[in-house]
Design brief:
Number of helices of chain B: 3
Helix content of chain A: 10-25%
Shape of chain A: elongated
Order of helices and strands of chain A: HEEEEHEEHEEHEEEEEEEEEEEHEEE
Helix content of chain B: under 10%
Number of strands of chain B: 20
Radius of gyration of chain A: 33 Å
Number of domains of chain A: 2
Structural class of chain A: mainly beta
Largest sheet of chain A: 11 strands, antiparallel
Oligomer: heterodimer
Number of helices of chain A: 5
Structural class of chain B: mainly beta
Chain lengths: 399, 413
């Protein structure tokens, strides 16, 4: 018995060890995939709002925007908008210069401003001109708007002269005495009236707009610069450069009447509202791709350089108050290609179809709405099928 | 005892060895593959043994078999399951090692055959991982992966009782529990603008059933079979069970994993009936069994599963065990087993029933008073590559520790 068992045990253990040492597979393989019937597989389905006759609504609304934080300053006017600039300077002088000004030994020989053009809207052959006025009242960039401008106290006389306007640079001289007053005030506030800065107004003949770089926290050679040439006759001549420490541009425009189309306009805060009724989509789906496409009415649009080629899409919590959802810091961007803006809004659609967020529609605005005055006219929900906004959704469904 | 340390150590270590997990996609249908034996002792002789009445083994198929229990028993073990799966075009080897749970048996009254037995045992197993690559004009190529994991366990508590004329009956209250997760995912090309996604459906099961069994007295005397030491027939019946499943659907999306509870669904597990014969000839115990379960009655959320039909299993086994020990030789106490089975499994796919044929062998080494360490090996062939189906070579290896102890000795005054 013992002998028999020992042989039996050895054969048994040999078989077991052979099995244990057999190579195992870690990854899924295609063996058995033939048994998966099509009806049981994950399917990628298409849902196109254009084809599915989805209820759609759109309109244009206005929301206050704070231009004080804009990285551009826009000046000029056209058929639908006019824009003003306010600049304020704080001048710091060396002690030696302060003494000389106090002793009345210095004079401002010449003063001018260089403003590099960073944005333009309108044909460059169209007229552009402006006047510069000394402001006589305190202002701030936080909440300053066109209503504030209407009650702003400023001198009627134009303190600029010899204006030179090219495609890349706007240059003009300032009346030296105006700047000398500022210098005196910076030395001793009792020697001259307070310096509240300058107001730039487009002339009535102006038909285009130019933009310049706004105040930057760090030194930037592209921001508008004031050059002051100080002279002590037959002793020395020196030029000091001053950048604005506070600036804003103020925009005023005509009201837009668009019962259905979406008109996005920079500076004025015109935004679009867009709603797709997606209740036809099944539940428990995964959004693999959702592309929003908007067609531009190029005849009614006015775009600048650089172009307003991106639209920001945010999810609304309330279609009436136009308040945002709690995650409104996240947004989607639509990019322009030809006359179509398009972009992926998968995560927004996923939230709606999963019931994480109720669908109260989307807010559309120009990505550069604070630094442009472009008007982008988008065909709305009542337009023909080919032109109206459309949402192409590709979703995964487990069968 | 020293010489068995290595086996006990193997029992402890084996479940911790990381084997690549996986199995047949057949287990995708219904509740998966079912276990008929959790122990090496039964596996070695064809897995069933419904009419076998043992004093040193806890048979989970038939509660009536506990009526002869002599000592308090604890049984536990592991099963290594290797599966070489072939399709028409390729093959793959998967393996899996599972802990087979445990059973505890307490003899209460020898005269009346009352024993209390309880345990937690694996009942069914779902384990598959399949990938397919597809292509379409819109998205380009993409991979679809389908996997399933989990299974049901059975917790039970039961009693046996000896009827007049030495018939034994037994019954257990069964509680089915467990989780089965089916996952499917799609993965697009890395350059694709389409986002990947995955769905997983989690079913958390729980439900109650019962099992009853009967084993006859020794019929050899009745039929005056002098050469037969013991002849018994046994019957076992597990009731229909309605098993509730809390269902949670998870989907991996661009905004994270979303869970959606879709409520309870009911799975109706059909009854299981088994009949067996055991015959003791000298030192040989021969068992023959038949098991039937009408899986065409299984419904999930009131829907029948087309791929499931009725299960039938026939098995034949033999155990060699010296009944009269002439000496205290260790080798005289060793038990040897062999068996074979034919099974018409519950799977019926692509209009073809999936059948299985298997051979078994095993042995037990005594490690003390009515205590053994049992080994068994099964080699089975299941299915066919015809009709786009799969052929499996199944290798199962089981080790079970079966320990008997004298508990609860009454102090005589």
């Amino acid at each position: 018995m013992k002998k028999f068992f020992v042989i039996y045990k050895q054969i048994f253990l040999f078989i077991i060890l052979t099995i244990f040492l057999a190579a195992c597979n870690n990854d899924p393989t295609s063996v058995g995939s033939e048994l998966l019937q099509d009806a049981n597989k994950i399917k990628l389905n298409e849902f196109n709002t254009q084809k599915e006759n989805v209820r759609l609504s759109s309109n244009t609304f206005k929301k206050k925007i704070t231009l004080g934080v804009s990285d551009k300053l826009i000046l000029g006017k056209n058929s639908y908008v006019e824009s003003y600039i306010l600049l304020s300077f704080q001048i710091y002088l060396a002690d030696s210069l302060i003494t000389k000004i106090k002793d009345n030994k210095l004079k401002v020989a010449e003063t001018w401003m260089d403003m590099k053009v960073k944005y333009s809207l309108g044909d460059k052959n169209l007229p552009f001109d402006f006047t510069v006025h000394q402001v006589r009242k305190q202002w701030g960039s936080d909440a300053f708007n066109y209503d504030s401008l209407k009650i702003l106290n400023y001198d009627a006389n134009d303190v600029s002269y010899s204006r030179s306007i090219t495609d890349t640079l706007v240059k003009f001289n300032l009346v030296p005495n105006t700047v000398f007053e500022w210098l005196k005030y910076s030395v001793d506030s009792t020697l001259a009236p307070k310096n509240y800065g300058l107001l730039f107004k487009p002339t009535s003949a102006t038909q285009r707009l130019l933009g310049f770089k706004g105040y930057q926290l760090k030194n930037d050679p592209d921001v508008p610069t004031l050059y002051i040439v100080l002279e002590q006759p037959s002793v020395f001549k020196d030029t000091i450069l001053v950048s604005p420490y506070m600036d804003i541009h103020v925009v005023n425009g005509t009201e837009i009447y668009s019962p259905n189309d979406i008109v996005l306009e920079g500076g004025m805060g015109y935004k679009g509202y867009l709603f797709f009724d997606l209740s036809m989509l099944p539940s428990n789906i995964i959004i693999s791709k959702a592309t929003l496409e908007l067609s531009v009415d190029s005849l009614k649009s006015f775009d600048g350089t650089p172009s307003s080629d991106s639209i920001v899409v945010k999810v609304l919590k309330d279609s009436v108050s136009k308040s945002y959802t709690s995650d409104s810091t996240y947004y989607a961007i639509l990019s322009r290609s030809g006359n179509v803006f398009s972009g992926d809004i998968s995560w927004m659609v996923q939230k709606w179809v999963s019931g994480k967020e109720e669908n109260h529609g989307l807010e559309l605005s120009l990505a550069d709405e604070k630094s442009s005055v472009a008007r982008i006219w988008i065909y709305g929900s009542k337009q023909s099928e080919a032109l109206r906004p459309r949402l192409k959704i590709y979703y995964l469904k487990n069968n | 005892m020293k010489k068995f340390r290595k086996y006990i150590l193997l029992l402890i270590i084996l479940p911790n060895i990381i084997f690549a997990s996986g199995g047949s996609i057949y287990s995708r249908f219904g509740l998966g593959d079912f276990y008929y034996s959790y122990s090496a002792r039964r596996m070695g002789m064809g897995e069933l043994g419904i009419a076998s009445i043992d004093y040193d083994y806890l048979n989970f198929l038939n509660p009536a078999s506990w009526s002869k229990l002599r000592l308090t028993r604890v049984e536990t073990g592991i099963i290594y399951n290797g599966n070489n799966i072939s399709s028409n075009s390729s093959s793959v080897y998967y393996s899996q090692t599972i802990f087979t749970g445990f059973m505890l048996g307490f003899p209460i009254d020898h005269q009346y055959g009352i024993s209390l037995t309880a345990g937690l045992l694996p009942f069914s197993n779902v384990d598959y991982d399949v990938m397919t690559e597809e292509n379409n004009d819109l998205t380009g190529s993409y991979k679809l992966t389908y996997s399933g994991k989990g299974g049901l366990s059975k917790a039970f508590i039961g009693l046996s009782y000896k009827l007049p004329f030495n018939f034994a009956i037994g019954a257990s209250l069964d509680y089915y529990l467990g989780k089965i997760i089916h996952k499917s995912s799609i993965e697009f090309n890395s350059s694709s603008t389409y986002r990947d996604g995955s769905f997983s459906d989690e079913y958390s099961y729980n439900g109650i059933g019962f099992t009853a069994g009967l084993i006859s007295s020794n019929l050899a005397q009745l039929f005056k079979l002098n050469d037969v030491k013991d002849l018994r027939i046994g019957l076992t019946y597990s009731s229909n069970s309605t098993i509730d499943a809390d269902t949670v659907n998870n989907s991996t999306t661009i905004i994270g994993t979303l869970s959606n509870s879709s409520g309870k669904i009911k799975t109706k597990l059909p009854y299981r009936f088994g009949a067996g014969l055991s015959l003791q000839l000298s030192d040989y115990l021969i068992v023959a069994d038949y098991l039937y379960q009408p899986f065409n009655q299984l419904t999930k959320d009131d829907k029948h599963i087309n791929e499931l039909k009725n299960l039938q299993k026939l098995s034949l086994g033999v155990e060699y065990r010296k009944s009269e020990l002439k000496s205290h030789s260790y080798w005289e106490q060793v038990m040897l087993r062999g068996g074979l089975s034919y099974e018409k499994t519950q799977y019926h796919i692509n209009n073809k029933s999936i059948d299985m044929i298997a051979v078994y062998t095993g042995f037990s080494l005594p490690i003390g008073l009515e205590s053994t360490i049992d080994f068994a090996f099964q080699f089975g062939k299941r299915g066919t590559t015809a009709n786009n189906l799969l052929k499996e070579n199944i290798y199962k290896f089981s080790i079970t520790l079966s320990l008997g102890e004298i508990w609860f000795i009454r102090q005589e005054r």
